[in-house]
Amino acid sequence: MDSVREHPVCRAAETIRTCVDQMLLDTIDGHAAILVGVDPDVGSLVEAIRAAAMGGKRLRGQFCVWGARVAAEASGSTGSPSTPGVLNTATAIEMFHLAALIHDDFMDGSDTRRGVPTVHRSFTDRHVAEHLSGDAGTHGSAMAILAGDLCLTWSDELLGDAVADLDRATRSAVRSMWSTMRDEAFAGQTLDMLAQTRETVTRQRARTILRYKSAKYTISHPLRLGGALAGAPVPLLSQYDEIGVLAGEAFQLRDDVLGMFGDPAETGKPVIDDLREGKRTLLVALTQERASPAGRRLLTTSLGNPQVTVDDLLAVRELMVSTGALADTEDRIDDLTASAQEVIGRIEVDESTRARLRELVRQSVRRRS
Question: In which pathway does it act (predicted)?
Fold first, then answer.
């Protein structure tokens, strides 16, 4: 059937998402008992984290589980979400992602995420509404830092639980991949923040930022972590990395397009945010390269401008269309996705499993939110 809801791949994805959702909330609730036990006032922080955890597609967790499934099947095993440690690892990745979102929203000054106030914004608004002492913005920022830090520590705890009973070699391999994932994601975020301090960005720098800030930890690392848990051989792990870099870049490019042209009712955040925050994306880099002097001035004065208007946004959108930057970005998404699918076609698994991995990649780059 054509219905996404009835597609067997989506039913399988929903099962994984439900399992990861439950483990994510169980982890938060388990720590809540300790935190609130110190003082009931700490409950507001737990509630904010729990609210931030709601929703999301759990794509990273799904890629982790399917990384294990494909690896197990390729080695002749059955492979399933019951692969030792895989659900804990999938949840650890999603907890790490939650921490990144909370901190990223604070750094970018975003007011909404998934249609609800971000953590720093909710605490800032509460401070104002309750007429509390001190600066409301400073309070909201501090609480968001605490919330993100807690999620980071919990992600490490989940990963530790995942590998606790594994053999030494597997445990070492998974921990090494996990460490690399964290370091690369933070490096990418640092480059993103530095890029926002500069008027222009080259397409190469934009691609480096998107690869390490998002692409690798969205698909490549989750696939490899799942594969390592299932004993994937080096050639398969290399294929996972190839798939992840290709599809992960396409994923982030789609995110960049949605950040400028998406429907806020579906994305859960205003489309003007990326422009106001001064995101130096590949879409922006291509536009800067091709625009006239007047167009470049428009882009320069709009990027990172807290007073940017809807009219400015519409003008920048038109510039991205007229220079061909949007069309070329869409073409690159298509090319990257096709290349990732070609690599999937070379993995020696049955067609049903291959189709599920293909569909997961397709969902990642064809999403509308």
Answer: Isoprenoid biosynthesis
- Across the strands, what pairs with 113? 116
Residue 110 has pLDDT above 90, yes or no: no
339 vs 1, 135, 240, CA distance in Å?
Answer: 26, 51, 13
Cα–Cα distances in Å, from 222 out to 67, 125, 167, 182, 348?
7, 35, 20, 12, 19
Write down the pLDDT at residue 1: 27
Contact 254, 332 (CB under 8 A): no
Residue 43 in tokens: 């409950």
Pick from 217, 247, 214: which is nearest to 341 by CA? 247
pLDDT score at 113: 86
Residue 102 placed within a domain: yes
Classify 117 as helix, strand or coil.
strand
Residue 103 lies inside a defined structural domain of this protein: yes
112 has which bridge partners? Answer: 117
Segments forming the whole domain that contains residue 193: 8-365
In this structure, is residue 2 part of a structural domain?
no
Tell me which DSSP letter residue 112 carries: E
135: CATH = 1.10.600.10
